[in-house]
Amino acid sequence: AFPGTQGIYGLLVGFWVLMKTGILGGSPMALTLDQGWQIFFACIPVGVVGFFSGWYQGKTAAAAIGLAARNPEGIGKAIVMVTMVETYAVFSLLASLLLFNGINL
């Protein structure tokens, strides 16, 4: 279930952009080219970091399962390692939302 959260974070940012630009639930606002690029670059952190952290979190989770199979007492350490990778996805979500909120629409 852990690597799936990166997709949820991307979906959250996507809906945030659609709502703030009026595409979802309102009349779409006319954006300048500069505003379009700013929105694009504001979404990059959650896209790129979400992809790589999801990839490595899957690998970490697979290794954690192997560790738990060999040593059931080490399950706590395994969960902590998987959660540490998730932290970077949360940071990228925060970065994208802060960058997007800084755009004058």
Automatic annotation (TrEMBL):
Membrane topology, as annotated: Multi-pass membrane protein
Keyword annotations: Membrane, Transmembrane, Transmembrane helix
Membrane-crossing segments per the record: 6-27, 39-58, 78-100
V-ATPase proteolipid subunit C-like domain ranges (all copies): 41-99
Gene Ontology terms, MF aspect: proton transmembrane transporter activity
Subcellular location: Membrane
A cellular-component GO term for this protein: proton-transporting two-sector ATPase complex, proton-transporting domain
Name by which UniProt lists this protein: V-ATPase proteolipid subunit C-like domain-containing protein
